[in-house]
Amino acid sequence: MNIHEYQAKALLRTYGAPVSDGRVVLKAEDAKTAAGELDGPLWVVKAQIHAGGRGKGSFKEADAGEKGGVRLAKSVEEAAEEAKKMLGRTLVTHQSGAAGKQVNRIYIEDGSDIERELYLALLVDRQTSRVSFVCSTEGGMDIEEVAAATPEKILSFSVDPATGYQAYHGRRIAFSLGLEGAQVKECVKLMGILYKAFIEKDMEQLEINPLIVMPGGKLKVLDAKVGFDSNAVYRHPDVAELRDETEEDPKELEASKYDLNYIALDGEIGCMVNGAGLAMATMDIIKLYGAEPANFLDVGGGATKEKVTEAFKIITSDPQVKGILVNIFGGIMRCDVIAEGVVAAVKEVGLKVPLVVRLEGTNVEAGKEIINTSGLDVIAADNLSDGAEKIVKAVKG
Ligand code: ADP
Ligand code: MG
């Protein structure tokens, strides 16, 4: 689960991290009051969307102005003006996808003098199963580009959970970032703060790009991108409250209400499968036959007819879906329940694309019977590769 920059900064502030003073604005008419509460002489007006690269992004609408999603202003009036231009418009960045994201919230914060921009991140490293620090002197840039062009400029190491964060971790980061004197101590403290927040709040990612050095030498968190482990959010009601559903894929949001494991993807074949492993295999084999999956969907072991119906509706609501492959291995899940769900869903929402169904396992005969007598235009498949081949052929000809 991701949150906005202003929420991340407010959270980090409670742990004692240095962040600028700022105000969030939801309505254009509040922009001036918000900007007026800040000291100036420089205001920074920042579009709040769950995607990075806002500064270098661009708006779809001409009336949003030529500039990106992070704008400098020299007066309260100018700050309010820029906020108004961005609110309600669609910002496209290299992380937002081509469709972009509508800007519904603006953060106006105090402008900072910047001497150097650094990169810092904490993340869960799946290779070592530990929390890792990643840092670089090349802040303010796309870290993937730095990693590709100059990997030697990135330092990454993991923290042993048995010891937790230690001062030498912070010193290692400070030296690699070229910090000196009192800055080293400040860095050691700040890294400790970030590590504590990361662990306590079950974060998955905490990226500060840039972490800046100001002319006096002090450090400041200038941007903050925070993602939480969704499976742990139930332990943090304060974090759950920060969820902004308007930022999420509507199909994924709907799926989460029915406790379906659904991830939207870019391809054309909708998949309904039981079991994460089988779902992965199904996606692989669709690719093998030359098409791309439109989603990952595991309906789970004990899915009811209602759940299957909802799952099918979510798949068919995706205009990208040009064909559907239902691939069920009935173990705990019964094939007849799946068949009933599919039939009920098709009756409710109609079927405009080819549908291939492969059923195997518990109550398979009853399941096939339900499909066969339903009058639906279903292509039956005998096994996984047969199913994949048939749906790709039906879609691609
Ligand atoms: P994004 O990463 O989405 O582009 P950032 O918050 O990193 O957004 O802002 C982009 C750039 O804008 C920063 O690298 C920094 O140079 C500048 N910037 C952002 N916030 C401020 C601020 N409060 N004061 C001065 N400059 C800022
Ligand atoms: Mg940034």
From TrEMBL:
Binding site for substrate: 274, 331-333
Domain of life from the UniProt record: Bacteria
Membrane-spanning ranges: none
Residues bound to Mg(2+): 209, 223
Pathway where this protein functions: Carbohydrate metabolism; tricarboxylic acid cycle; succinate from succinyl-CoA (ligase route): step 1/1; One-carbon metabolism; formaldehyde assimilation via serine pathway
UniProt record, GO biological process: succinyl-CoA metabolic process; tricarboxylic acid cycle
Co-factor binding details: Binds 1 Mg(2+) ion per subunit.
Segments forming domain ATP-grasp: 9-55
Nucleotide-binding recorded as keyword: yes
PROSITE patterns, alphabetized: ATP_GRASP, SUCCINYL_COA_LIG_3
Enzyme class: ligase
SUPFAM superfamilies with a match to the protein in the record: Glutathione synthetase ATP-binding domain-like, Succinyl-CoA synthetase domains
Cofactors: Mg(2+)
Function: Succinyl-CoA synthetase functions in the citric acid cycle (TCA), coupling the hydrolysis of succinyl-CoA to the synthesis of either ATP or GTP and thus represents the only step of substrate-level phosphorylation in the TCA. The beta subunit provides nucleotide specificity of the enzyme and binds the substrate succinate, while the binding sites for coenzyme A and phosphate are found in the alpha subunit.
Family note: Belongs to the succinate/malate CoA ligase beta subunit family.
Name of this chain's protein: Succinate--CoA ligase [ADP-forming] subunit beta
Species of provenance: Falsiruegeria litorea R37
Species classification: Bacteria, Pseudomonadati, Pseudomonadota, Alphaproteobacteria, Rhodobacterales
